[in-house]
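hey so i finally got around to running the thing on that chain from the lab meeting. sorry it took forever, my laptop kept dying and i had to restart like 3 times. anyway pasting the input first so we r on the same page abt which one it is
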Amino acid sequence: MSDWPSEHPRRPASATFHTASYVTLAGADWLASADPCPESVHARWAACPDAPSTLPCGSVFDVINAPALFGRELVDRLWTAGPGSGPVATHRGRILLFAEPGTARRLPALLGWEEWSGSVPPLLCHGTGDAVTVPPLFPHRPARPDPPYGPPTAPTGDAPTPEPDRPEPDRPEPDRPDATSRWLVAPDVRHPWLPGPGTLLWACIRAARRVHTGGAEPAADAPGSSAPAL
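ok and heres what got predicted. didnt touch it at all, straight out
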């Protein structure tokens, strides 16, 4: 059994768990709606779809900005024992969790009353008046050289048979501004479900307990849904 508290609202039963790795058109509309001029945001994306963007917080979403290790533990708790998450991104070694507007103001106050709050690392809570940098809409795919022309030559003598070419794995380019930015759970619907302060308080405490015990599962927690690949 999960120890997800029944007094906190659970993700709507009709909602599915979205773990897209790239932003859909509907998700882009939702992101752009955070800006007072969404048309200008779409124009920037059309010109540079593989560049990060800066969007204001407070009206459409707040963002909880956590250190990488704790943030990944936080996302894992939300997905394995809680209701899932809204969009989640990684940027410059930090985890960005998109939350309900107002969460940035309320979550620090709620954490201050918790016994385990001392084990929660400092969180950057971005709300009204703040802005965050979000990853590109699509993951960057570096160009690959064209394969050589002409049929392969047959091996002669005892020469080893050459192995067929294998595609090189994508590697971030350090000189690109988006090299350390990507979506873990990308926006893919026009009105995504967003966790509120109560949900994130629950996840923070469970993550702090798990980190404090060296990764051991709390007795009441049990896996639920599959967590997104981190």
